[in-house]
Model the fold of this input.
Amino acid sequence: MKADMRELGDAGLKRQNGVIYEEYLPELQGYRWMNVIRRMVDDPIVGAVLFAIEMTMRQVAWQVRANNKDPQGDEMAEFITECMEDMSFTWSDILGEVLTMLPYGYSFLEVVYKMRGGPSHKDPRYRSRFTDGKIGWRKWASRSQDTLSSWKFDTEGGIQGFVQSVPNRNTTVTIPIEKGLLFRTTVRKNSPEGRSVLRSAYRPFYFKQNVENIEGIGIERDLAGLPIAWVPPQVLSSSASAEERAVYTAMQDLVVNIRQDAMAGVVFPLAYDDNGNKIYDLTLLSSGGGKQFDTGAVIGRYEARIAMSVMSDFLLIGHEKQGSFALSTSKVEMFITALRSWLDVIADVINRYAIPRLMEANGMDITNPPVFVHGDVGRIDLDALGQYIVRLSSAGFQLNLDEELENYLRQQANLPLQDVNATAPSTTQPKLSPVGDNDGSTPADATHDVANGQAGKTQQDTAGTGK
Done:
């Protein structure tokens, strides 16, 4: 039977004129969601979670690993490493922009190329540390999520471009998907906007923010007392004169704006009627005692739910009466697993799109391109590692017989490493972003460090920009 090459179905993404309409809450659609995200990232708990994620992921080592199936694999890996180091921004800076996909759901970077024409060239399109005339990366420039005007799709729902509203030029530009890198937390329905990791935290954030505001007002009223103004009945009647209505407005503003601060004080008229009673009076009604609800516990519950939504509730252990070290250890492992998955997504996009496109622009064979791989997020527990080494030694294993394995074990304990190329001059690639110690944990002819540390396994699953 002849294969049918047509695409008949659709992913089901709700969109119109390039704008996504997947959010069912009106207050979280479009630019309104952008404003909510800005408020959420300023929240102490949300900010602490995002800070922990970013700083942990910035500590991970990255390497360009040659494909051993290609006889020129080492040469191509060295070229990609040079291009990574020759950009306007360091890899650490780029990673920080990529990680904005977590709060926003996606991050779009425009790939800007240049001709490697030497360091003295005045034109940035040609300025480079290298003078071989090859095409390299000038920068991976971030395109802020709040400048998004719409997305460009083809007839089958494939993502074709990022339409940006440029504030400084008062115009819109379309960046083709072939010139960009789209990092997403999820590819559900092939939505270019992914899904914010803060979306599940919105409800507890909303209630937490409201309870905090109410708590602040309640504390202020408890300290200052509830102000009560006594006025003649005529001032409150519907038939009050313009002069009496003005008095009512002034009295209303007075009781609403009473505060206990350095400027506290009231200037009030002293007037009596014919019977010697005050015509106007101002009193403070004191609090009747404790509140029915423990607002601190309510706020704490919502903070825990916010952290739980991104597997970071272990950060709150120690701030509450309950919690244990064993529990925190298991939660940290789950957190690290989530970070590894996001790192895999980042590596997949770069390996599937950035590296092959650059090699193709230089006329290189892209059958077996080098890959950008990340190291592990956490280190092995040293007690477990020590027991493991003791067991290996008891079994007759000699560490000095396998230098590469010995270096791996040394690395876990942050110990000095053996030179695995002791018989030949050691060659090390320059580092993009110094994050840790130079460990030289992999052979110079196999990997090219972008940041120091152990290279992890690469995932070659499809992720990122899909058409």
The chain has three domains: 15-198+325-379+418-449, 226-285, 382-413. The radius of gyration is 31 Å.
